[in-house]
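Ops channel
N.P.: pipeline sanity check, posting one input/output pair.
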């Protein structure tokens, strides 16, 4: 026998992706990645398929699935862990993260004439790197989740929608950022450099996607900046090792 289950939603601070035969979760407020065990992964996969078949985002309240009694505990476990919710306002459609794969690496092509670095570039760089440092220090010292910086980037991108850079603007700004980055006394870290680059671009009215990816065996988490077809930092070969789990746009 089976029992009907009212609509279940993916909690707003939870994101997931498929990595080969596994499902990996990112809990943004906890700043934590985890791999679902087999029964939970199968249940979440079933919910995702049901949500896609419903063709609504989020699914209408009438959309229900039948849960085998053996799976009731699995559903309860995901609800208790905060992965799923029954509250429409606290969740969204159960669907894995999808991101486009860039085909062009902006920093890989060095222009014949480097763009001049002017005062506004230096000022923007200093503000961007200081802002990123403060954001990450607040997370480390206060042990807060990473949802704060992501919320701010998302809100800013929404205000600047339509400000996606063309190829020449983006390449010039990325080149200038990389030139100035040499003089910033901090080793390269994906979260810091991606956040600082996004801040820097915003000073010139431009926005881009902040993509977080994950891999397993061995586990690794990474992030980078891109748009639909261009990668702004890192290497295409490197990010290809990671499955996108969160796209901030």
């Amino acid at each position: 026998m089976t029992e009907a289950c009212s609509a279940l939603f993916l909690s707003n601070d939870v994101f997931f992706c498929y990595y080969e035969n596994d499902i990996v979760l990112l809990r943004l407020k906890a700043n934590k990645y985890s791999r679902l065990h087999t029964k939970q992964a199968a249940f979440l996969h079933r919910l995702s398929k049901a949500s896609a078949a419903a063709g609504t985002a989020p699914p209408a309240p009438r959309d229900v699935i039948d849960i085998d009694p053996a799976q009731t505990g699995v559903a309860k476990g995901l609800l208790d862990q905060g992965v799923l919710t029954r509250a429409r306002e606290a969740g969204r459609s159960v669907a894995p993260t999808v991101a486009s794969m860039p085909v062009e690496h902006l920093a890989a092509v060095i222009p014949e004439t480097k763009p001049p670095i002017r005062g506004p570039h230096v000022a923007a760089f200093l503000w961007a790197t200081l802002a990123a440092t403060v954001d990450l220090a607040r997370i480390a010292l206060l042990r807060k989740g990473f949802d704060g910086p992501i919320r701010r980037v998302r809100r800013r991108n929404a205000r600047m929608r339509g400000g996606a850079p063309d190829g020449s603007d983006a390449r010039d700004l990325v080149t200038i950022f990389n030139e100035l980055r040499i003089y910033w006394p901090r080793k390269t870290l994906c979260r810091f450099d991606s956040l600082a680059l996004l801040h820097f671009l915003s000073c010139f009215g431009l926005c881009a996607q902040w993509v977080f990816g994950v891999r397993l065996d061995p586990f690794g988490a990474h992030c980078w900046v891109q748009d639909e077809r261009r990668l702004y930092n890192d290497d295409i070969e490197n990010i290809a090792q990671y499955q996108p789990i969160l796209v901030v746009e």
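N.P.: looks fine end to end. Residues 3-92 form one domain.
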